[in-house]
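Board notes (copied after class):
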Amino acid sequence: MTSADRRTVLTALASAAVCGPLAASPAHATDDLDIYTSNTDLYKKLAGQEGVEFARRYKRHEYADHSTPQRFPYNRTTVMALHGGGIETGTSELCLAIAGYHPATLAPLQDGHGVHDYWMFEGLRTSGNRDLHVTAENCDDHVALSMAFSSLNVLSLHGCTSAQAGTVPQAVVVGGLNTRFKTLLKAEFDAVGIAWRDGNETPDLAGVNPANPVNRTMLSKGGQLELTTELRAAMFTVNTRAGRAGSTTPVFDRFVGACRAATTKLEQGADQIIL
């Protein structure tokens, strides 16, 4: 089946399945249900609760150039999960793995694609983590923004429902302002049998707001992935905060491999050179 044929089938199935619920169910990408106006607002109102109700994790790799005649590598890509932990489940584990680290041991992956910087915000509550959601365009965490500003690319991971995405149950919406990144991601998803829909067809999940950290890169564009609940559930045999990192499935591996392959190809592009 060609990509065009596959998308036609996907769209037809989605339209039949969600024509009613889609209009009634707000997407997490909007701030209609947000309690906090920004990350700063959340940090102030939940002062003293970091490590109890929420957490921030990130890794910035050390780069140094002490040579006069030679140039050395620099970071090109940062992977983000703005709503990790119990907010949009599975995105923390995906963030780590796509950045090149085993989500349970943090050992570097040996797949030839290297490692990337990463940043995530995680909900740690036993319930009610949705209340910790801050819509992406309102993210003002200084570390997250500084990492985005200093990267050529950001790949941002989010969770949605299939009704919000307008897709078959297990699918991903491919968005962001970097059209080349989107094309590469969709091709890799096709290669491993993961259904996708273009973000241009789902405005609430499109990831095109310039204020979204995914697009606050050196190139002012990035790639955003909205994974349905069913797709994320299929990636783990123990779908709990404690169990996910050590119970990933072949679906998880295929998805991670597709993202890492697309990122490697993206970094080989002509716009990925800093003079």
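Comment from the instructor: Residues 250-266 form the longest helix (17 residues). The domain at 3-59+75-269 is CATH 3.40.630.100 (Aminopeptidase).
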